[in-house]
């Protein structure tokens, strides 16, 4: 194809816009990572903004990992992320599959109930009272069960299931397969993109669990990583008596941000292909 001047101009403009958007996303990440590895003297010398450090120091990470609560909170976060995501996916699939079948009696009313929860919620205090009445206070289940199902994710998965060929279900029923077997032996294996997408949503939510832990957990041994990191940051706000011997506030803050965000940043590139496909296919139908 022969490109005219208008096509070339549009292509150049697109590249410039994409470059600006890319820099807007990369520069803050690079700044956070660089400051976490930069000596405090160099940070002060550059007015608090360092993109490429001339010297490297791991003092902030040593102090962060040297805290006794970090390994315990990391284990708690990994536990609620793995177990919670598994429960989330199982329940979401069990709800989305029947809602995707048009022959379900009362399907319209069940869908209305799901959509209703997207617009209205019980509020913080009623939710807390329900969690307390069920005996979940001061347990890890209080960080998993209250958010076991997301209506938004149910609708995404339902839309994906609706796009599967109806002939698959008919042939499976002719062979004598029941609904549970159809779901776990046919639907789930064919729905890897949407399962990965929804699973990533749930996993990131569990990994960043903070408000639920503040609300429902008072036992410090059950604090997830985000709560412990927040406490460390609060302690780092204390005035420094000797700037050479102590880790400064800004360096500690950036190290905590990197430590809490790094696992998600590492996992996401491997799931990006499924994530993009799942979002596109799951959003075609309402």
TrEMBL record:
It is found in: Cell membrane. The chain crosses the membrane at residues 12-33, 74-97, 109-131, 143-161, 182-204, 250-271. It comes from Paenibacillus ginsengarvi. GO terms for cellular component: plasma membrane. Belongs to the binding-protein-dependent transport system permease family. Residues 74-271 form the ABC transmembrane type-1 domain. Its main location: membrane. It is a multi-pass membrane protein. PROSITE patterns: ABC_TM1 (PS50928). One of its GO terms (biological process) is transmembrane transport. It holds the Pfam family BPD_transp_1. Keywords: Cell membrane, Membrane, Transmembrane, Transmembrane helix, Transport. This is Carbohydrate ABC transporter permease.
